[in-house]
Amino acid sequence: MAKTAMASLPAPVASFSTPALVVDLDVFEANVAAMATLLRGTGKTVRPHVKTHRTPELARRQLGGSAVGITCATVGEAEAMVEVGIDDVFVANEVVDPRKIGRLVALGRRARIAVAVDDPQPIATLSVEADRAGVTVDVLIDVDILLHRCGVASAQEAIALAEAIERGPGLRLRGIMGYEGRVRLSEKNRSAKIAQAYATLAGVRSALVEAGFPVEVVSSAGTSTLPEALADPVITEVQAGVYALMEPELLNLGLPFRCAVSIRGTVISRHPGRIVLDLGRRVVGMEYGPPVPIGFVASRIAISDEHATIEMADPLPPLGSQLDLAPGQIRTTFNLHDYVWVSRGGRLVDRWPISARGSSQ
Amino acid sequence: MRDPMPLITQAHDRVRSLYGPEIGRSRDDLTTPALLLDLDALRANLDIMAAGMRGVPTTLRAHVKVHKSPHIARMQIEHGAIGVGCATVWEAIVMARAGIGDVFVINEVVGAEKTRALALLAREARVKTAVDDMVQIGELSRAAVAAGSSIGVLIDVDEGMHRCGVASADEALVLARRIADAPGLEFLGLTGYEGHCSLEFDETKRHALAGEAMAFLTGVSSHLADNGYPSQIVSAAGTGTWEVTSRYPGVTEIQPGSYATMDGHHRGLDPRFGWAVTVLSSVISRRSDRIILDAGSKTVGASRGVLKDWDLETYRFDEEHSIFLADESCPLATGDKVEILCNYTPFAIGYFEAYHVMEHGKTADVWPIMPRGPESRWLLDMLERGE
Fold this sequence. Notes:
The complex is a heterodimer of chains A (361) and B (387).
Chain A: E1 20-24, H1 25-39, E2 45-46, H2 56-60, E3 70-72, H3 75-83, E4 88-94, H4 98-107, E5 112-117, H5 120-133, E6 137-142, H6 155-167, E7 171-178, H7 190-210, E8 217-220, H8 226-231, E9 237-238, E10 261-271, E11 274-277, E12 292-294, E13 300-303, E14 308-311, E15 322-326, H9 330-334, E16 339-344, E17 347-353
Parallel strand pairs in A: 1-16, 2-9, 3-4, 4-5, 5-6, 6-7, 7-8, 8-9
Antiparallel strand pairs in A: 1-10, 10-11, 10-15, 11-14, 12-15, 13-14, 16-17
Helix pairs in contact in A: 3-4, 4-5, 5-6, 6-7
Chain B: H1 6-19, E1 34-38, H2 39-53, E2 59-63, H3 70-78, E3 83-86, H4 89-97, E4 102-108, H5 112-121, E5 126-131, H6 134-147, E6 151-157, H7 169-181, E7 185-192, H8 203-226, E8 233-236, H9 242-246, E9 253-254, H10 264-269, E10 277-287, E11 290-293, H11 297-300, E12 306-307, E13 314-317, E14 322-325, E15 337-341, H12 345-349, E16 354-359, E17 362-368, H13 377-384
Parallel strand pairs in B: 1-16, 2-3, 2-9, 3-4, 4-5, 5-6, 6-7, 7-8, 8-9
Antiparallel strand pairs in B: 1-10, 10-11, 10-15, 11-14, 12-15, 13-14, 16-17
């Protein structure tokens, strides 16, 4: 029989309709505290990546101590976060569209803004806009250290960009970033890959320093590479985001974080050996596989658009009962919801807007 | 003059205020990522379906879960659809408020809020839903009686997909009797979805599978009729089987949806329908061997997709990026726009709040995607207030 850990509704929560996304605030806070403990004595900071949840109420609760600002993937996310008073934002992505650059610079009047670059063209636009607005934008050079996505491929390219940044009014070269992406425990040559990535980052840093450029910040790493990043002498801040909410596939890394997110569905149909829940791909991200049952055992889960078909042993839960699953991919899941319900001490206490939902522009 | 559709007007005004500056701009001048709706391609798809249904003894019910657009739904009605199919009660409320009088939630509706919403909606529109269990019939009946309305009920038949639906004619008969006796409910017939056929790309095999599914569905229908419960409606089919199913004796209506917007998966099943929805994206980084776009799994809705007009191999899809191999012979440069063709459009739609409606290469309008959900209780509140 299914365990329904968060079934009781306090008075302020009048009703609860499924499918619904729920964050266990106790677990979330424990994860945030565990990150602070990990960082203690390392001289490094965390700049939580909020693309994970796009939820300002969660972002605010990740700040404090050495965590002075957040990381975003888009200008839209940055706008939503500055809107609630977060005043230190790094867009760890290439912003190229002149209109987006204009929006980013406008945020510079209300917050400290940093952005990544890998091309001279946006540097020029950024400089013109920042100078016109009378603000200073921090710039980090993006280095391709493993992903073969954005980022410069050599120290020479980095130096050329550093020169352009230094020449540009309204811009301040803050340092470099390089994101190695998710490196799973099972990945072949995991240690060597991460070591090579960080060596590339260190090499670019040295070249810039030798050429006389300031490199105060070396920003890198996600939750999956946290142990290696914390041991690295060059990295000054980690851009991890998933740590606060966690995903089932990262639990095998032995990090002090637990899964804080569940998605709740209602049993809408039952047949011999199987039940159907009212949740599917339209509300849960599937990039890392189907969601994982919480408190019940399933022999098979098939996810279609609006349904989860779950094969399980008797006794089947009754029609209308609610079951929880842990989403495999937190980030795309949050982006499919307007709200996340908040549980505390096993009771639903609130509902927070995912106000940067869809802020992909 | 009183606005006949205030809910839709408000949503439309909201996205127009958000994306207003984009209206009138050409494709290459839009902010990305953006969800584009090619109006000519949409019209062509609706025309193909209308022509295909001409002279056929079944009617078309357009499934709107695919696009969640009241504007597209209204165009489908103008192109001959008798009503819409929905996956949720919330979609049904939006479509009814878009002026569509016949809304069928082709899904099991369970839970006090949802049955209440359905029953309230049934005061203002012809509302239908599906059941496969006695418990649902009891809940729906109580809700309809409480609201003083009548809900049309169809028995969901498992045609081989093994998701929801009864598995036998005897089970269906038990439910039909219960529905017929339940106050506030009207037994209308049967519904089934041969979704398993849409995974079979070989047309001959797919049609054979669909034939088996329809033989079962219409067999259940005959069994009920023989026992005094004739079906007014026998509804089935998706875009992968619409043509054969619409011509199957005993079927009365088909419920496809993807034919309007299309995507890679459905083009593999029926290439007569063309791409009407794409994800516009920008090159944000140009390396010597590749381009990086600002649209990835968080906008396309999947870790795959191909480029329109560019024959480039996918290197990888990340959340905010997709990467395509492009050596220096490819003229694409930073800032250039490309369209991504989705393999399954509904997943992309979940990540956007509006369509950029493109006509003659320019944004003619922006249309809201609604309800975005899944938390749509405000729609029940609206009905409760009698608005």
